[in-house]
Design a protein that fits this description.
Rossmann fold; Rec A Protein, domain 2; 2 domains; alpha/beta; 10-stranded mixed beta sheet; 13 helices; 36% helix; 3-stranded antiparallel beta sheet; single chain
Length: 383
């Protein structure tokens, strides 16, 4: 019986590995990372999420009806524009109104709206628009993509077909969404496209007693690809007296973190006032709500017996309401406390962008992407 000859193991050199696998492998320390986060104006939310949303990453905002899902998207849109960036808004629910955007501080002149529900069409449109906008921005300004909502999106086959059974319909939609995230995630990272996907919370069947019986629409793709997932739960209404009658001004909303791959787990924000009616209150979230808890938790502020608040041994005020008012009105104190707690703000991100100078973290040269709209490919073949 012939003996098998032993073949010596050849250890590849670093250059050989690079020639074989290209830029797809590198040391983690050599990866290009912008370290830029898009914040909201809601400070406790920025803390809960780790700083807002990192450029190029995505968040799923799922919630009940009238729980503030769209309002938080408008809030991030406002922040994007304050930092010199642009917003791409996929209006699948056909609910975009310039007047409502302006009520939320958003300039419609700096928003590109896509009115379509076909996942394949939206996928290609977003890619083309994002590349164009990034080519026009010269100093790493943010680009925000908002999809409102995932529940209103569907694949072209389901929309074009008149008769589709329920199982095939759900399967086609889930496959289209999975492909969207698979082929667009890398592009969004390269271009620094921050994404917010608004979704609906629905009741799940056959869930054991004592377990969370809520779920989201759209299959597993978004759950897998989203860096941050949050659930918004609507509580009781906020009412104000107007001309002798009780009027609804907003709701108390609870924000629970479901998943965070970019920061440590943080506490739930409970019963946050969210205002919907501009007649009775400025629209949006109470920006200093729950900030007290965050400052006390991080030992920035001391809360003594009797409800006295102190900073560095100096008494500030007594009572929670007075402290909330102090945080709202004293800009210098608030900025100082936010810096100590390392809570990201629009001003912080603006300074970080300015510090980058001419360094371009999101070049468009050589950027390519795969088309998801098969209709265009079919038309080209027919011609």
């Amino acid at each position: 019986m012939a003996k098998k000859s032993k073949v010596g193991l050849k250890v590849p050199t670093r250059n050989e590995l690079l020639r074989k696998y290209g830029a797809s492998i590198q040391l983690a320390s050599e990866t290009k990372e912008s370290k830029l986060w898009l914040p909201s104006t809601f400070f406790a939310l920025n803390y809960q999420w780790g700083g807002g949303i990192p450029f190029g990453k995505s968040v799923e905002v799922a919630g009940e009806e009238s729980s503030g899902k769209s309002l938080i998207a408008y809030n991030f849109a406002y922040a994007t524009q304050q930092l010199g960036g642009h917003v791409i808004w996929v209006d699948a629910e056909q609910s975009w109104m310039n007047s409502w955007a302006e009520a939320n501080g958003v300039d419609p002149e700096k928003v590109t709206v896509i009115n379509d529900t076909r996942i394949e069409y939206v996928s290609d449109a977003v890619a083309d628009i994002a590349i164009y906008i990034r080519s026009q921005l010269t100093h790493n300004e943010p680009i925000l993509l908002v999809v409102d909502s995932i529940a209103a999106m569907d694949c072209s086959d389901n929309i074009d077909s008149k008769m589709v059974d329920g199982k095939s319909e759900m399967g086609g939609r889930a496959k289209a969404l999975y492909k969207y995230f698979r082929i667009r995630t890398e592009l969004f990272v390269k271009l620094g496209i921050t994404q917010i996907y608004i979704n609906q919370l629905r009741t799940a069947l056959n869930v054991g007693f004592g377990k969370d019986n809520t779920t989201t629409t759209g299959g597993a793709a978004l759950k897998f690809y989203a860096s941050i997932r949050v659930a918004f739960y609507a509580g009781r209404s906020i009412t104000v007296k107007h001309k002798g009658k009780e009027r609804k001004a907003g709701k108390l909303v609870t924000i629970r973190l479901l998943k965070n791959k970019v920061a440590p787990p943080r506490p739930t924000i409970s019963k946050c006032p969210v205002y919907f009616n501009p007649k009775f209150h400025e629209v949006g979230f109470d920006r200093v709500f729950a900030l007290e808890d965050t400052l006390v938790e991080n030992d920035i502020i001391e809360k003594n017996a009797g409800g006295t608040y102190s900073y560095k041994g100096k008494k500030l005020c007594r009572g929670e309401e007075k402290f909330q008012k102090l945080l709202e009105e004293d800009d210098d104190l608030r900025r100082k406390l936010l810096r100590r707690a390392e809570i990201n703000t629009i001003g912080t991100t603006r300074k970080q962008i300015e510090a980058l100078g001419d360094v371009n973290y999101f070049p468009v040269d050589g950027v390519e992407y795969e088309s998801q709209n098969n209709e265009e490919e079919d038309d080209e073949e027919e011609e």
